[in-house]
Design brief:
- The chain is α+β, with helices and mostly antiparallel strands.
- The chain is built from 28 helices and 20 strands.
- The strands form five sheets. A nine-stranded mixed beta sheet has the order 10-9-17-16-15-11-14-13-12.
- A hairpin with a 6-residue loop joins strand 19 and strand 20.
- The longest helix is centred in the C-terminal third of the chain and has 22 residues.
- It is elongated and about 140 Å long.
Length: 800
């Protein structure tokens, strides 16, 4: 057998036993020549550096005059900044030897530092000391040299120098510059919100107007007074008071002064005198014609929008906290946009990528693995797969994000409709009030008013944009939410929006208020279809039946004229007069469903299915969104819904067929579900105070509109009562026996009991109770609300 011998690895080879590489170590006993040769082979860069220094010294000795001239030219060009140039070149060489990672952050910092060099040259150019280096005098150039003098020697140079300084700071500290920009923008918005530029422009305009010469009017050519309504100056000086007598009257005087005292100013009303032309239509402050002799309320009756409160700009901090929290749970994402609204701020999150990799050995051209200096095989990372992060992973971290942001609750909208992002809605530290006047003054509302009559201002979205809707396109609206979440304020804002842009000849309201306190302020406005606000629950079925009769009457009118809807009827030349729109507003549906559920549900569904073409629309609100109140038939006929804060996810699904309303903040925070949207939209509802509502009501109840007030349509209620009385006469026997049988089963009987059990209206139930009392079956109780049953023995045996 051959004998195995241990072989020594060659110089530069890898020893797998010791793990060392390179040549063998030289002992101290070696000769100097051996040590020198070993050092040359181990550290060649030392020798190269020494050789370079030696060559530089020889070049300086040989080219001394040329170098001195070049140095003087460099000093003349850069001045004292030549030292900074040497430092910058040394730093660049040092960075090049370290081979840094050429990332975006590196290049941004590198460019910012080099721009800072030029900024320092321009700053030093403002100083011209009497120093001199060689033939260069700094009093002639500057401390920054000729280059610095060019930067600071002219107006354009100074602007360029300032731009270079701003660019250098922006590149080095981008986060601070971004925060400073946001703060400046917020300050600018605050200044604009105070209407300071508008007021200054008004002051200058009035000043120059006063300097212009006044043109004398030709009094002889004007024989009759001008019948153009002009706005009183006191409306420009101060907001109107709540008393109706303090409102400015129209300058068009009429002869109706019979009710005025002697010496008082005449009552003025918009009207057309006999002498004026037939095509005369004076303009009003709201931009509507006054040919119908009604004046629309001015927008100054509403309070101006609340001033924008400056809040600390912490959205960038919250955005970074969201990204870090998601990254801690292994979710790669980034914030692409931030939308700040009055109540919440929506952070747009773009899901990242999930990348799976594996380590693969590096091989040479022959396919053999390569090794590093330590004898280990070289490896590189190879991407196996790359997929998007699942949206469910982000939505499942809602509670963790709420904990990290210290927020009471957050809502995740995944995805945001029309955008490839996931919306995380975080409540603001301070909520802003959304005034109805600010919503109405917005361009979106003005465009809606130009297209339709029934425009309503809902509020502002998550980005602060005003949201307006058309009630005619809804065509009916269901509002639901817990107590105190903002339903009544929403109803008031809808009513005020309609009253500000419609006269009683264009709009009639049917107000049903079972709570008796929400709509009492509107009891005397001329827009009411009936003479009062309906507060008695037992009268509601008859009122709804009267509205159904009006709907049937309009359909018969449409059929005779050959038109399909109210818009075609009002534009038809065959129409004798225009039909007004009707809006039926029910403040609490739950009470009605408890008193007469079958009849109320049938009437509401019939109106919702057929009344749209006739111009009759429904707005129904309830604070108990359960399935026995908001039934399946009602939901099917009310595609447009508004959900305020509720207590459970079950109630949210009952209103908008999905979760989300249980995470609302209350106080006007709502989800608006239009007919043409797949997902609800989060809004902050507009606010209307009681004082604003009183001002609008006082405008319409002013005495100058007394002779223009349309007649109430109470005859519809009388017709319904007469029909019920006629129908009861034909069915007295069967209903009377059924009522008498019910009386035997209860100790007390009332009209509401007969309504629920016999599915009849209030007039017929009251008449049956009167018949039972006349027959001696029941007797009146002390309270008068119910009757005590008096059943004789014969009657009991008869029923047995």
């Amino acid at each position: 057998m051959p004998v195995k011998t241990r072989s020594r690895p060659r110089s530069g080879a890898v020893s797998y036993r010791s793990g060392r590489t390179g040549p063998r170590r030289v002992s101290r006993r070696s000769s100097p020549l051996t040590r020198l040769t070993h050092s040359a082979r181990v550290r060649p860069r030392y020798w190269l550096g020494g050789a370079a220094l030696l060559a530089l010294a020889v070049a300086i000795l040989l080219l001394r005059p040329t170098i001195i001239d070049g140095f003087e030219e460099a000093v003349s060009l850069f001045g004292l900044g030549l030292a900074l140039l040497a430092v910058a070149i040394a730093a660049d060489v040092r960075l090049a030897l370290r081979r840094p990672a050429l990332t975006r952050t590196f290049w941004r910092t590198w460019a910012g530092l080099h721009l800072t060099f030029f900024f320092v040259l321009g700053l030093a150019a403002f100083f011209k000391p009497g120093w001199q280096i060689g033939d260069v005098s700094f009093s002639e150039v500057s401390a920054g040299g000729d280059l610095g003098r060019q930067l600071a020697g002219s107006v354009l140079g100074i602007l360029g120098w300032l731009a270079i300084g701003l660019a250098s700071v922006s590149l080095i500290y981008p986060q601070s510059i971004r925060l400073a920009g946001h703060g400046s923008l917020a300050s600018l918005r605050y200044t604009v919100s105070l209407r300071i530029p508008q007021r200054l422009a008004g002051v200058f305009l009035s000043f120059f107007t006063a300097l212009l010469p006044k043109v004398e009017e030709e009094t002889e050519a004007i024989k009759e007074p001008t019948y153009i309504p002009q706005w009183d100056e006191k409306w420009e000086e101060s907001p109107p008071a709540a008393e109706p007598e303090e409102f400015p009257d129209s300058p068009v005087a009429t002869e109706e002064t019979t009710d005025q005292e002697e010496g008082a100013e005449p009552v003025l009303a918009v009207g057309r005198p006999e002498e004026e032309p037939a095509n005369f239509q004076p303009a009003l402050p709201m931009g509507r014609p006054a040919g119908n002799r009604w004046e629309l309320p001015p927008l100054k009756l509403l309070t101006e929008a609340a001033e924008i409160e400056l809040r600390p700009v912490d959205n960038e901090i919250k955005a970074k906290l969201i990204v870090d929290t998601l990254a801690s749970f292994g979710v790669n994402a980034r914030v692409v946009n931030i939308n700040q609204g009055p109540t919440i701020t929506q952070f747009g999150i773009e899901p990242g990528w999930e990348t799976k990799t594996r380590a693969v050995a590096v091989r040479d051209e022959k396919g053999r693995p390569t090794y590093d200096r330590d004898g280990k095989p070289k490896m590189h990372t190879e991407v196996v797969s790359r997929t998007r992060v699942r949206v469910s992973r982000i939505t499942g971290l809602a509670n963790d994000l709420s904990l990290a942001l210290a927020a009471p609750t957050i809502r995740i909208e995944a995805p945001v409709p029309g955008k490839p992002v996931v919306g995380i809605e975080v409540p603001n530290n301070t909520a802003s009030l959304v005034a109805l006047r600010g919503v109405i003054e917005h361009t979106a509302f003005q465009k809606t008013v130009a297209r339709t009559t029934l425009a309503i201002g809902l509020g502002k979205g998550v980005s602060g944009e005003s949201i307006a809707a058309d009630l005619a396109k809804m065509p009916h609206l269901l509002v639901a939410g817990a107590t105190g979440s903002g339903k009544s304020v929403c109803i008031n804002s809808i009513i005020v929006s309609l009253l500000l842009h419609n006269t009683p000849e264009q709009l009639r309201l049917v107000l049903i208020d079972p709570k008796r306190v929400e709509m009492t302020a509107l009891a005397h406005i001329p827009h009411l279809a009936f003479s009062r606000v309906i507060t008695d629950i037992e009268e509601v079925p008859g009122v709804l039946q009267a509205v159904i009769h009006e709907m049937d009457s309009r359909y018969r009118r449409f059929a005779s004229m050959g038109v399909r809807n109210i818009e075609a009827h009002n534009k038809s030349p065959r129409a004798t007069h225009e039909l007004p729109y009707w809006v039926v507003i029910i403040d609490e549906l739950a009470d009605l469903m408890m008193s007469a559920p079958y009849q109320v549900e049938r009437q509401i569904c019939r109106l919702a299915q057929l009344a749209r073409a006739t111009g009759i629309h429904l707005v129904i609100a309830t604070q108990r969104p359960s399935v026995d109140v908001v039934t399946g038939l009602i939901k099917a006929n009310f595609p447009t819904r508004i959900a305020f804060a509720v207590s459970s996810q079950v109630d949210s699904r009952t209103i908008i067929d999905g979760a989300g309303a249980e995470k609302l903040l209350g106080r006007g925070d709502m989800l608006f579900m239009p007919t043409d949207a797949s997902k609800p939209r989060r809004l902050q509802g507009s606010f209307v105070s009681d004082q604003e509502l009183e001002r609008v009501v006082d405008w319409w109840t002013n005495d100058r509109f007394r002779h223009l007030r349309p007649e109430a349509m109470d005859h519809l209620l009388q017709e319904v009562q007469a029909e019920e009385d006629t129908g009861s006469a034909t069915e007295d026997d069967s209903l009377y026996e059924s009522a008498k049988e019910l009386a035997t089963q209860h100790a007390r009987i009332s009209t509401s009991l007969l309504q629920r059990r016999l599915h009849i209206g209030y007039p017929r139930a009251a008449r049956l109770v009167d018949m039972l009392e006349e027959e001696g079956v029941v007797s009146a109780s002390e309270g008068g609300q119910s009757r005590q049953v008096l059943i004789t023995q014969d009657d009991t045996e008869q029923f047995e």
